[in-house]
Design a protein that fits this description.
The chain has 289 residues and is of the alpha+beta class. The chain has ten helices and 13 strands. The chain has two domains: 231 residues, Hsp33 domain; 47 residues, HSP33 redox switch-like (CBS domain Like, Alpha-Beta Complex). Keywords: Chaperone, Cytoplasm, Disulfide bond, Redox-active center, Zinc.
Length: 289
């Protein structure tokens, strides 16, 4: 298994924890969207977080969508994941170049001020929607803030993407640590102590640490208990049939406008960049009478 998530508990179930290695997912996203390094880093962090949040869902058909809307040149990112370990996403702008900040890719500058929205579709009449203002635009800190404000769960989120000099992905991943309501002050103090001296996610991954070893580093001294692993992958559920249904749902006037151009139409999926082409005769067959 290349990309995977591990789930664990610690301190007699007072802590729940997830960690992921996601190099292949992020590299596939980079190839599909032809992203510049800053955008790859931002999208990769979101894909890693979305994957972990997806496997937290209980229902087989449950979905979680993370959206960032920012005032920076990247504009925004959307990622959707399910409970089966499948994730997909896209940036609003694929190529952004900014000078490094403190020797690192300036993800916060590319996103800047804005909001983060988390949408959970769990088969109810209305999806759950939580919205918070971005704190740094660096994504991990913004998710930590989201959990504290919207879900009232004290959490620590770490995310990272390290690029090679040829702009391919060297490593990617992260962790989410969450405290249960009954967590003792002693356990909280130990966790805070661990987090203060914790290496960065990319330092841990690039040194060869697995998701299990990342959690062992974060939760050292807290009696970690590994529970499950989940394979994860970049997967889009678009198809030619789904695009046809979408086109067929257009009103007659809209379809007539498209057909009047007299040229084949290409429909491109935002999430995976797959293109579907339709000839004029096909478009006519979809048109409502």
């Amino acid at each position: 298994m290349s990309d995977y998530i591990v789930r664990a508990t610690a301190a007699n179930d007072a802590i729940r924890a997830f960690a992921i290695t996601s190099k292949d997912i992020v590299e596939e996203a980079r190839e599909r969207h032809n992203t510049s390094p800053i955008v790859t880093a931002a999208l990769g962090r979101m894909l890693s977080a979305g994957s972990m949040m997806g496997v937290m869902l209980k229902g087989e058909d449950d979905l979680v969508t993370l959206q960032i809307q920012g005032s920076g040149p990247m504009k925004g990112i959307t990622v959707t994941a399910n409970s089966k370990g499948e994730v997909k996403g896209f940036p609003n702008v694929s190529v952004v170049d900014l000078p490094p900040k403190n020797g690192k890719l300036d993800v916060g500058g590319a996103i800047d001020l804005g909001i983060m929205r988390v949408i959970k579709d769990m088969g109810l009449k209305e999806p759950y929607v939580g919205t918070v203002e971005l704190q740094t635009g660096e994504i991990a800190e913004d998710l930590t803030y989201y959990y504290a404000v919207s879900e009232q769960i004290p959490s620590s989120v770490g995310l990272g993407v390290l690029m090679n000099k040829d702009n391919t992905v060297n490593c990617a991943g992260g962790f989410i640590i969450q405290l249960m309501p009954f967590t003792s002050e002693e356990v909280i103090a130990k966790l805070e102590e661990n987090l203060q001296t914790l290496p960065s996610v990319t330092d841990m991954l690039s040194s060869g640490k697995t998701p299990e070893q990342m959690l062992e580093t974060v939760l050292v001294g807290l009696d970690i208990d590994f529970k499950e692993t989940y394979e994860v992958c970049y997967k889009c559920d678009c198809s030619r049939d789904r695009v046809i249904k979408s086109l067929a749902s257009l009103g007659k006037e809209d379809m007539d406008d498209i057909i009047s151009d007299g040229k084949p139409v290409e429909v491109r999926c935002q999430f995976c960049n797959e293109a579907y082409e339709f000839a004029i005769d096909e478009l006519k067959s979809f048109r409502k009478n």
